[in-house]
Structures are given as C-alpha cells and as structure tokens.
## 1
Amino acid sequence: MKRFRNHLIGVEQGDFVLFSDFETDGEMWTGEGERRMRARIDFSESYRKPPAVQLAPSMWDISNTAFARVDLRAEEVTEEGFVIAFTTWGDTKIARIRVSWTAIGELRHVDDWDLY
C-alpha cells in the first residue's frame, strides 16, 4: 500500500498507441513465438516518489484465427515516467493496440527541498 504524507495527490492519465503492425506487416502481426514491444511514457511533471501506475488495453485489433496471449505491464516506474511493456507469444496475431494508463501518487510540496 502506498501512503501519502501530504494532501498534494496527482492523477495523470493518457492513451498511447503502442503499435499498428498490420499496416507494415510488422512482427506482432506476422511473427510467431515470443515478441516484445516497449515504450517510454514521461509524466507532465515529476512525482515526489514513484506513483502507482495502472495499464489497460483501450483498443486492440487481434486475429480471430489464434489464441489471444498478452502480457501488459508497467515497468521501470520512476518519479518522471515509466515503460509500457507488452509481450505476446505462440501464434497470436495482433494488428494494433492502444494502451490506457493512469498514474496516482504524491506530488512535491512547495516546502520540499533537497540539501544535496
């Protein structure tokens, strides 16, 4: 559980098109086996400590000829941003995906300052 020590709580949200491989016959659409895609997201301002980040697919276009195998997670979460990590495997064919994200955390207070 995250505990916040001040009343300055920041909530930031966004939508990000991670890939659109059907347009270019990219590996998520034409490949097989384990495939990964990563993208860096930067917050509009920094948090005091790394926030909680929640991801969800907000749009996906996936083939109906194979099983849907997807691992979607937020990695490398810092005060400034995070990485969307997407993995699929087997014969899954994903044409495109858009990821919705929400970050919730403690913002810096005007009285916060670092000596060094």
Note: Helices lie at 27-30.
## 2
Amino acid sequence: MADADDVRRLALSLPHVVEIDSEGFDFRVGDKGFVWSYPEREPGKRRIIRTDIAVLFVGDEAEKQALLLGEPDLFFTTPSYDGMPLVMVRLARVDVDRLTELVVDAWRMRAPAELARDLDDSRFP
C-alpha cells in the first residue's frame, strides 16, 4: 500500500512541480495545488496534518461523486470540501499504481497548458 513517501516521489517526478513547505506534503504546478496532506479539523481542537490521507484535485463534481460512491472504503470527503472538486484518499488502502494514476490525473487537470505539454506520456499513459 502507499504512503506519504510515495506521494512525494510521484509528485516530484512530474514536470514543473514545486513542494510547498508544510507540516506534511503540499504540491503545486503553475501555482495551483493538486495534492496535499489532509488538514483534519475537529471543532475546538488544533488542526492536525494527516500524512496518511491525501487531498486530490479531481475534474468536477461528477467525478468526485463517482469516486466517493464507487469506492467509499478508499475515498471520502468532508463538509468543508462541499462544492469543490476535491476528494481525500486513504493512502494505506490504495496501491501505488492507482495512486500514480490519481496524482498524474490531478496534475494534468491543474497544470497550465504551456506546462502540461512537458509531461512525458510514455511514462504516464
């Protein structure tokens, strides 16, 4: 199964990625976040950065709902992400191949066109 080191390795293998200094992991392409550690918030408590859960950008609400409904053991969301094309993935339940697909897809959706051309599609079909 996957972990934060896998997320970091995958994200940094993509072109034009910048890692933002954080308590966990936080990756951007073209100043747009595409995968980061889940900042868990409980009322009345300090925020906890969960490096065992990744927040991923997805294409739209339909894709978000398909992931949430199709694989509820793997994906979830919280009310703070309502209306946003973001899902959380439990890293301990996802294999590295599937994580690769998710991270690359998130990168593709967030990368500006002039940067997206630099992705080597032979490495990430």
Note: The chain has four helices and six strands.
## 3
Amino acid sequence: MPSTAFHLALPVDDLEAAETFYGEVLSCPRGRSSPRWTDYDFYGHQLVVHKVDSEDLPAVARNPVDGDAVPASHFGVVLAWDDWDSLQSRLTTAGVKYAIDPKTRFAGRQGEQRTCFVRDPAGNHLEFKCFRNPEMLFATEGFEYA
C-alpha cells in the first residue's frame, strides 16, 4: 500500500456489474461489502462503490484536451509503461469499449504519455496513463498546452 492511500467513493446502479468490472476485468481485490456498497483495492487505494438508483447517477461534463472531449470528472492511475500495455490487453480481451481510445499525448514533448479512458458499467470514467519519463508527472517547466 502507498504511504498515503486515497479513498474514493463512486455511485453505481448495479453492484454485480461493478464486481465484474472492478473485480474481474481490472483485477481489483474485493474488500468489505454490504448489500449497498463494496470496497475494492484499486492499485493500493480504497475505492468504494455505493448502490444508488439509476436516475441519481451524475451527468458527464467534458473539457477539450489535445483534441478529445475529456470527461471533467474522472479518476484513474498512472502505471508503469509495460503495465499499461498489459492493462490494454486485459481491457481488449474483456471487450471493454473505450470512451477515448488509447493514444499518445504530447508525443516527443515533455510530459509525453499514453492514455485511455473507459467507463465502468455505471458510467463513471476512468483514465489509465503512463509517462515515457515518470519524472514528468508533476513537472511544470516547459509546459504550454492549450
């Protein structure tokens, strides 16, 4: 577990579908649960999905980034380069549809990264990315992106 783990809670309208996605497709170990929520170990962080009625799921706002309409509300994880490739294989094998197809952003520039967006069955957006140079994760010098 990281020295400081985050806790994130998300609404879902189907706990079984969430279990298939988080537990099976993403291979997140399941933690505690009740009839209304389930904990997952999301890459060392605590993710909790809470069952809500479908009409209570939030709408999606988007923001333009590098030619894509990126969901403004999303979460994810920064993986090692090779781990990102492995995840892409698992997502493809599971038939997961991309909200934003895998691509390289800022190619040949500082902050070059590979990224993709998927949705869980409730419509929550997840971004998985990796940096060519992991030290660029929080770098600010030389960044001028629209």
Note: The chain has a mean pLDDT of 91.
## 4
Amino acid sequence: MNALITDEQRVLLLANGRESLQNPDFDPAPLVKLFTPDASATWLLSEIDPDDHDHAFGLCDLGLGAPELGWVSLRELATVRGRLELPVERDLNFRAEKRLSAYARDARLAGRIVV
C-alpha cells in the first residue's frame, strides 16, 4: 500500500476526507492517479476516509466503459494484477488540471478516464 501512495499524499488525502465530511459541496482535485500498466484500469483518488484509512474515494475506471465515482480499498488495489501479472502503479507525473467532478463528467462522456 505504501508504494501506491506516498506519506505526503496520504496526509493530503486524509485532509480532503475530513473536509468532505464537513462540507458536502467540497469538490477537490484528484491527488493520485493509479493505473494497471498491462490492463485498462485507472483510479483518480481525491480523499481517504479519516475513520477508515483503507478506503479512498475517487473516480474509478475498470476499463469496461463505465467509469464511476466511488470508494475503493487500498489493500485490494495493492493486490490487483493485470494480464501480465503486473501490479497497480502510481503515475509519478500526474498533476490534476481540474476538479474531480470535471474528470467524472468527461469520463462519463468518453466512457473512460481522460487526463
């Protein structure tokens, strides 16, 4: 799990999780992009549940043409493997250019996450 999210990102994701609990209109930019290098899955994570540090919220795309906002287990992501058995990776160059809701809107229109 540590390879997927840095300590600095975890602090920011938890802060977003706390803000989200207090402000229902909170729409942060995603902080982390995870992907399967040998499959079509992508996750843009914007927050971690402050009461359950295993659950992250974001835009999830399993490569089936139906990306959706939702919760994902970080422990489960650490076990995911693609066709060639490669693990999920963090995109080291990802920098969000818009809010999560805008990524979700664009993904629904395209049928996949577009960054």
Note: The helical segments are 7-22, 74-77, 100-110.
